[in-house]
User: What shape does this take?
Amino acid sequence: MMKSLSKLLIFAFLILGSSGSLNAQLSDLHYLPPMKQGRNNKAITEQAIYLSTPETTAFSVEIYRGTSATPLTTITLSNAAPVEYTLGNGDNEITLVSNNNTGVVLTNSGLRLVAPGGERFYVNYRGRNNSQAASLTSKGRKAIGTEFRWGGRPNWTSHNSASNTLGIMATVDNTTFTLSGYNPACEFRLQGNAGGLTADSYTFTLDANETFVFEAYNTQVSANNDGWLGARLVSDQPIVISNGGLNMGVSASSNSRDAGMDQPVPIDNLGKEYVFVRGNGNSQTETPVIIATQNNTQIFVNGSGTAIATINDGEYFVIPESNYSVSSAGGNMYVTTSKDAYAYQSLAGSSSIVSVGLNFVAPMNCLIPDNVNNIPDIQNAAGITLTGGITIIASTSTPDANIVVTDGNGTVTKPAAAAITGTTDWKTFYIPNLTGNVSVQSTGPVAVGFFGVNGARGIAGYFSGFDVAPNTNLQITGNTCLPGTQLEVIGEVFDSYQWYGDGNLIPGATNTTYTATVAGDYFVRVAKGPCFYNSNNLQVYYCDPDVELNKTADASEYDEGDTITYTLSVTNWAEDPATNLVVTDNLPPGITLQSGTPTAGTYTSPTWTIGTLISGQMESLTLVATIDDITSVNAIGTLVNIASNSQDQSDTNITRDSPSVYVVVHNDSDNDGVRDQTDVDDDNDGIYDTVECTIGETNLALTGSATSSSTYPGGDASKVIDGDTNGAWAGGSVAATQNTTANEWITVDLGSVQYVDEIRIWNRTDCCSDRLSNAYVFASSTAFPSGTVLQDSFDNASFAYQLGNTSGVTENNFQVSQSIRYIRLQLSGDNVGANYLNIGEIQAIRYDYCDTDTDNIPDHLDTDTDADGCPDAIEAYADLNADGGDGPEYGTGSPPAINGDGSVSGAAYTTPADGGTNGTPDFQENGPVPNISTQPADEMTLIPNNGSIDIVSTNTSTYQWQVSTDGGSNYTDIAEGTDYSGTQTANLTLLNPSLEMDGYLYRAILQNDNWICGSVTSSPAELDVRLGTIITNRRVTIRVNPN
Assistant: This one.
């Protein structure tokens, strides 16, 4: 027994050659609108219509051309006697029209097939030429409707026979239809002019059985490749359409092409679940195509809970071939959509891209028939013989033995069934090499498809029906817009009902009617016996203006230099259009915009001009930006930006906006690839950050003031800044508001604009911790409005952050990293429980860093902490080679080699040197360079007197005098001894210098113990040694100064 919920089974038929589509539908009335091929006979020459029926008693079928009231012919049909009705070749002006009959109203084209006795039969069109083939099957009465989307696949071939066609046939007089929603750059044929129709929309009026054909000739303009795909066709009276590519191709760099066509159903006969069966093509040709009929349609593949794509009304998505179960004929794929959508299948009969076809994949359900009787002459296609076969999709509850296949040779032996990933309700069979009339009998529901191939030509299709689908159409009673809107199931009575809103089950909504309270998409799931079925979707909107603005980012955390992608979406949930709609999004400092791409309107930063947005319409803007390097000293920074919208109407904000995005940017100050938040050595100087400084903090809120929108007795707002984080009400430190509105707030005023690194919110802990769920935290340098309108807080905020589920959460911390004065905590309206706002404490934290040299660079980021010109690595290790000689980091390289935690490989991380033994490491103690105020002066000495050379300096711990005996080319240190004293002081004494020392040069090397990076060398002083002059007589000896 089938227990699936709305298994709207889609069988995508298998093509083993260049092919079109076939999707048989029993009906007593069929319409075949004409179509257009790019060039006569280049897609189809020979053509025939194949009719078959399960009826055993013969009956008459009348075939009418255009508006004629006289049958073109009458045939006799029965199960045992299928009929092939041959048509004229090429552009016969019946099924295929010439250039002159394109873009104008026609009265003599198209076919109508009627069984006057009401008997039901299948109608299948098959056409071919020497290289191409295609087929189309009428959907009978189920093809009749008032709203469609132009379907097919993107047509990329550059061949001059490529064309995209849409045929329309009216069923009653005075029918007006409008085609719109295509790429405005598309150009459609008007008789001999391939670009004669260039307007953005077209409206025409047809009488009963009159027809109209659109052609988008591929090589006319590039927009004709796919700009027509998903175009909206709406009429005021029932019509029937057919569409396809005659010819079409998958490669823009090739002339490869083939023919493909099919007849779709109106949007109220679509579904949400599909099974595709793969053809024999390659990755380019084997691709399902999903076309949305409603905005925000999610597409899921093979049971995945993550959408492979989300598309809007009129957009399409090509599902990659890699999602098939196997990359060979008979592989299957399970696809579901969140809203009703068209499903087409591109597939091929061979691995060559010249063999590509198109199938409309129709929704079915577990009420489909248990037999197909029969597929006529499976080997015949307008005069050529095919190699034929079938595929079957069957209920997994039906034993394989209960499914019996017969062909012209009798009962056929089946292969084993193939399972389908993502569903346990269906299985598939692939059975080739059949002949004659083929039938399938089963004890459970089956969908049967057939295929046929001859060289490069092939046809394919499936036999399953809309005729047994339940009538579960919805209508609106009461007000046409909210409030006061009631949804009601019209049609037959079912065993049970379950209503869904935007794809989510609505608890307790199990009646035939449902009163909607929120705008959105609704459908009902009904049950009849063991089978479940989903109704069509119905949209409900507000009477008052309501524009929803949302903004998201593609991640929540980034590194400097990363690319960030923002997506803004705007939706009109009101019944009336929003006009002159403009969205403004000023990106915050810290990012550089690269591009902005809107789905509608124009974008010039910071303004997205949309114009008019109709009911239910959603448009989006994609902004791609690069994150700049963080200029602050924080380990992490934040980017917060808030978008806003304006329009002619006053937005009631019934649907809450989410216009702000908060993301964290991680700093990597030393560019070593390890984020500062986890890096143990943020500047790679070989000193642990914790050794360089223990970071403190200041709560700036303690000196501020607090107010609230209302006050619960005993819950004064001042309690959020009393320094007590106790979250228990009995502790007397919990602030609380009344539940007057759904957007109550508490605001903290810091007293002045101050830089805040982090905000901390301490929750109530004795109960009610979930009341903060979904609340917003706003920050601003200007005062917030006194009212409780959430949007007003958004408009004033420079920072906005939304809390998640706070149940059981004691503390919420997040970076702000900006200058602010006011902090507001406000309920969002999506509140849990009552509308009370309870809070234990609000803290505005400023980090207090160590900054030895007061240069605004914290010690853990400063490679010269004491600003003495000597790198910390050298001072900490007391090693002049510690920095490798190529930069201030420890070791060689910038950055040097590091470990996983950010520490420098090879660094010992020993206790930093303290040359002064004063308890302050040298790297944090400014050791200024010795300063010489008086350089050594030249010295003249008379033998045998002593000489003296002096130096005057400051910031000097040690001296070392040196001498040069070769005129200054080389110097050597002087030691204490018989020739010198004071060699390590500021005063060098030369002891009884000899004449040999005349002309020696002396200099001093000065050092500071707290500055290991080097020494200061004085200027040289020259020694002049002279003999004393002696005059002697008999009485006295006189020494005479030579000067």
